[in-house]
Fold these 4 entries.
Entry 1:
Amino acid sequence: MTTIAAFYWKPEKNKCSISYMLLDDQLNVIEKPKHIELNTNKKTTSSLSECLKKFLRMVKQKDQSKNILVEYKTVMENSPKANPREDSVYINSELDKLIKREGYKGHRLRSMLKNKDQELRLFKKSLRKLKKLTSKDEAYVWKLWNIALHANKASWQKAIENLWKKHEGIKRMTKQNKTEFNEFIRQVKKT
C-alpha cells in the first residue's frame, strides 16, 4: 500500500502558506487537508526546514512502511514577471533532500489547472460530485487534489476517471463502466 502525501507551497507578499493532505492508494483521505500560514518577516531557512521536517514526521507517523509518495507543487514567484523567490528555491531543494533522506519517492508537479480554465471548473464540479470537495472548502483543498491526481488542462478528465474508478471500487474498466463514467462526465458538464 502506498501513502500519497500532497504538499503545496505558496509564497505571498508578507506571508507564505503550506498546505498538505494524506491519501491512501485508494485515494481515501487519511489526513484531512491542512493549511498553515507562515509570517515571512520572521521566516528563516531554519524555520522553513523545521516546518518541512514536521510535515514529513507527520507523514511517517501515519505510515511506517516507507512506501510513501510525496506529490508536491511549489509556486516559485508572486507574479509572472518576478524572479523566483529565494524561499521557494530553498523549499524545493530542501524538500527534495528530505524526501531522499527518508527513502520516500517524490514527484513535483510542473503545472496546475488555473482559475481561468474551463477544465478547472469541471474538475471542481467532479470533485464535489464525488464528495471530495464541498462549496465551503478553501482553494487549497482543490489544489491538493489537483496535485495528488496530477490534473492539468490535458489530463483532468483522466485524473477524475482514476478517482471515480477508486470511488466505485472498479479495478478494470468494462464497456458498462465506461458508459457509466461518460454519463458521470456528461452530468458534470451539463450542470
Note: Residues 116-191 form one domain.
Entry 2:
Amino acid sequence: MKAYSLGIDSRTNGEWRAILIKDENDKKHITDKLDRNEIIEASVINMFLTNIVTDENLRKEKPFETDIIYWMNDLLLDAVTAQNGIIISSRLKSFLQKFKIGDHKFYDVHITNSADRDNTALYHLFQPRTEINDITNFSKSEFTFLDKSTRQTLKIEIGSFKDYSDFSKAEQSCYDKENIVLKITTRCLRKDLDVIYGFANNLVVNEKLRTKIEESDFAGIKVKLYKDYEIVLD
C-alpha cells in the first residue's frame, strides 16, 4: 500500500515556529520522554511562537492561522526539540481522533507570541506511541544489503530476521565488520493503522487519511509520498 508523509507546507507555513525553552523542558522532561516514547506528566506544555523573518515589513504570514506549527530547535534561543511529536490545532486533533491512530497521547500546548505576549493560542502536541518495530512482521519484510561506499545493491532478502532485536544486531554487525548498509525496503505490518507512526513535525499516514486530509480545508499542511520504504499489510 502507499504511505504518505503529512507535515508542514513550508511555502505557506514557513515563518512562524514554536519553540520550547530549555527551562520548561528541564522542568517537565518533555524531549527526553518523547524520545523514549514515554508519557509526559504535564497538564500543559508552554511554548513560544517566533517568526524567523527578522524584518517585520517582509513578513507575509499571520500567527496561529495554520493547523500545524513547526517545532523548531534554536541554540541561540536556548530552545530544544524532540525526535517525535507534531504540534496541531484543535480542529486537526478532532479530525485525527476519527481515525485509527494507535496508541497515542495528546498534550495541551499553550503558545504565546514572543512579539506580543497577549497573543496566545491553544494547540496540542500529538505523540503517536505505537512502536513501528513492534507491529512489523520481520519474517515477511524485505531487506536490502548495500555497499557502504558505492551504495550499490549487493543482495535482497525476505524474512531474514525474526524480530527487531535480530535485525538491529545484524544491521550493526554489517556496518561495523562488513562495510555493508542493511536497510528495510519493504516493511510488513501486522496492524492496519491510519496513522502508521510519527517523527519530528511529521506523521506517516495511509491512503485513506491522506485522501480525507486533501478533501478538507486545513491550512499549512503538505502531504507527499513516503519513500523511505514500502509498507504492506500482513
Note: The chain has a mean pLDDT of 95.
Entry 3:
Amino acid sequence: MAEQQLLTSDSSISKQYDEQGGVYIQKKLDVRGPVVGLYSIEFEGDLYDLNDHYSKPIQIGNFIVRSPIEAAINIFAFVILLGLTVAAVLDDPDSVDYWTTPFKLLHLLFHSIVHIVPNWSKEDGMDHKKCLRVICGITFGISRYVVILIYFWRIHWGFFVGMLTLFALTAKLRFLGELIKTLWRIQWSA
C-alpha cells in the first residue's frame, strides 16, 4: 500500500499512516490553521483524524469520544478546582473568589463536554450533536472572557476598557477567533 493515497481530486487532501498504523487525513491548511472544532474529516462514510491531531478519537462501544486527551485534562482540572473550592468554603469562606470561580468551573465543565460529545455519526455525518457542541463552545468561550475581564477590572478600570477595545479591534485577527469561527461555521454551513 502506498504511503500516501490521493482521496479526491483536491491535491491538498491525502491519506496518511502514523507509526502505530493509524490512519489520518492530511490537508494543507491556510495560515490561520484549522477551523476551531474541526479536527476531523468525513470521507466515504468514515471519520478520520485531520492532520494527525495528538488527541485521536476513540470509540467506546457505539460512542465516539472526539478528543479524549483534552476531555481528560479539562475534567481533571474541573474536579481539582471544585474540590479546592469546596475545601476553601469549608475552611474559610472569605478566601474564595466568588466572582471568578463559578466562571472557571463553567469553562472547564463545558470545555470537557465539548470534547466528549461526538461530532460525527454515520447517520448525521458532521452535523451530529452540532447544537449541543455549539452551546458548550459558546458557554466555555464566554466564561473564559468573563474571567479575563474581571481580572483586568481588578487591576484598573482602564485595563478593562483597554481589553474590551483590544477584543473589538482584533476580532478578525483571531483574538475572539474561536467564538467567531464557531458562529460563522454554524451560520453558513447549514
Note: Residues 5-189 form one domain.
Entry 4:
Amino acid sequence: MTTRTLRNGDSRDLPIEPGQSMAVVAVSGTYSASVIAGLAAPSTIATNATGGTYGPYATGAVIRLQSSAASEIDFDVDVTPAIVSDTHVLAKTDAATGGIELSAGGIEIPSAGPAFTFAGIPAASLMAGKTVRVTDVGKSGSGSLWISDGTKWTPINGAVLLCSNFGTLAAPLATISASASKFAIPASEMVSGNSIVLPANILSIGQSVRVSAYYMHRGANVGSWDVEARIGTANTSSDKAVTEGYGSAGSKALHQLEEISIVSATSFIDNKVVGFNAETTNVSALQTTTFNIASQMYIGFYCGNMIAGNFIDLISYRVELLA
C-alpha cells in the first residue's frame, strides 16, 4: 500500500486484513497504538513510540493509531509494509512566549521568529538561541532582528541600524537660527517630540552607540558655532554629548561621526574620533550624568552657540547600535 501520515494529535482506526502487518515511523514526535478489535483486543501495543512493525495478524484486527502533539507519523499497512517518508514542515506555538517554532523531520528550522515591540519581547531566558523581529526598532516597515543568548537580547550579527533620516541641502530636516536651540527633527522611526527615543534596556554593558550627523552652516557673520548630539534620560541640553563639532564664520559643512562605549548601567565613555595618525586635544572621558540603560533615554541634536543672523541646517543623521 501507500505510506500515509498522521500529524499533530490526529488518530485513525486502521483495519488490518488477515496476514497483514502495520509499520510505523515517527518523523517527529511520538505515537501510541492499541488493538481495539480482533483476537488480541483490547491491548496496547505501543506507547510514546518512535517506530516499529506490528503483526502479522493471522485473523485480522483493527488498530487505533494516535499521534502526539506537534508530530509527523508515517505508517503503512500491508503484508510487507514499507515506509517512504514525505517530510512536511511542522509548526507549533510556544506556550511561554507565543512564538512559532518550525521543524521538519524532528529538526528545528531557524526562522525570523515572531514579531514584538521591544518592550514586549519575552524574557531572554525563555528564548535562548531564538530570534525575534522587533517592529519598533529599525527602519519603518521592517524593524530589526534580535537573538537571545539566554541572558540578554542582542542584534543578530552584532549590529543594527536603529534609525536614520535624510533631507537635502534645499530641504534640510531641521534648521535653527539661535544659540542654545534644539533641532526639531521630524517624526520618523523611533522619533517622538523632536528626539530619538531609546526604549529601556535596549542598550547593554559592553555595547557601543554610533551617531553620525551632517550639518550646513549658512551666513557670513563673524563668529564660531557648535553643534552636538546628546544622549540621556533628561531629554534636554543637560544630557551628555555623543558627538561634538565646531565651526567658524561663513558657509561651512560639518560631518560628525562618533560613538560611545557603555561601561556600566549608568556610565559611558565618549570616544573622540580623530583622523588616522592624528591626535586631538579632546580626550575621551567617563560620563555619568543623566544616563541609565534601564530607563527610557533620548538622543537629540542641539546648537550650543552661534551668531544671530546665521543659520545651521541638519541635513541627515544615522544612529547605530554595535553589540
Note: The chain has no helices and 28 strands.
